[in-house]
Amino acid sequence: MEQYPVPYQVAMIQMASDFLNRKENLAKAEGYIRTAAANGAKLICLPESFDVGYISTRIPEMMAAAENEQGETVLFMKALAKELGVYILAPAFWKSQDGAVENRAYLIDDEGTLLGSYAKTHPVGDERTLLQRGTQYPVFDTKLGKIGITICYDVCFPETSRLLALNGAEILLVPAAWRGNFYFKEWWDINLCCRAIDNLMYVAAVNMCGPTGDQYFAGKSQICSPIGELMASCGVEEEGILYGTIDLARVAKEREFNTVLIDRHPEDYDALTK
User: Fold this and answer.
1) Which value, to the nearest 10 degrees, does the dihedral of the CA atoms of residues 148, 203, 170, 225 take?
2) Fewest CB atoms within 10 A around its CB: which of 25, 32, 106, 162?
3) Hey, CA dihedral for 24, 34, 169, 143, is it positive or negative?
4) Residue 237: is it exposed, middle or buried by C-beta count within 10 angstroms (0-12/13-18/19+)?
5) 92-122 pLDDT, tens per residue?
């Protein structure tokens, strides 16, 4: 029988970021990460573009602040992960040597090693024309389980989480800067629980909260069980840390009981790629 790690605690850091103020945002994130680690969290997740904030109408300014893996944000988070012995998900804009920019999330292990990153595959708004989109769906095989990542708008597409589940993902991390206007808060809730039960995986989503510039973020960071139950949730405006327990044995149990992943008929699905 396959052995799973003992249940462990995950921490979602719901915070507001000061636009383009990397120094202040890193300091705020550090304080939350230290608190979460002291409270026993093994995997700690930050919102989309937490280091410079997010304003959808000012993407070029965010692009100008983008870094690569040797930039301040990733190096700072690697050192912090190693010091505290925790995994950290640190989303930040990435810039290549030729100037292309992607919206990425970096996964760092508890020894401070950068395991890799995921680049947002479904840009939204001005991102569509300004950013380079990702085309890969990596699953990271770690001692905390098999981890997949999507960013914000990606979670609206069932195909993204299904690809990750078919590649073995047991946990889906969703960092976001999800806005709170129109019906978006409800859309956020429904998407997250659906992606969980669609794929019989944990979904742990962390969002920005409150106002940034002329934008208002929905908060409501949350953790859903492998059958779509809401296990824990933040409010709309509150900054703070949301904790939840990940038990990978439950993923295995649910996937043994519910055969939705093995009863698929991909031979019928050609139309989905046209």
Assistant:
1) 180
2) 162
3) positive
4) middle
5) 999 999 999 999 999 999 999 999 999 999 9
Q: Would you name the residues annotated as active-site residues?
A: 48, 120, 152
Residues with Cβ within 8 Å of residue 69, at least 6 apart in sequence = 94, 106, 114, 117
All structural domains of the chain? 8-263 (3.60.110.10)
Cα(207)–Cα(143) distance, integer angstroms: 25
Which amino acid, 182?
Answer: F
Band (273; pLDDT cuts 50, 70, 90): confident
Tokens of 15: 């915070």
Residue with tokens 């139950």: 229
Residue type, 259: T
Compute the CA torsion angle 101, 106, 112, 113 (nearest 10 deg).
Answer: -80
Tokens of 147: 């981890």
pTM above 0.85, yes or no: yes
Dmax (CA) of the chain: 53
Q: How far apart are CA 91 and CA 174, in angstroms?
A: 10
What does the block give as tokens for 224?
């859903």
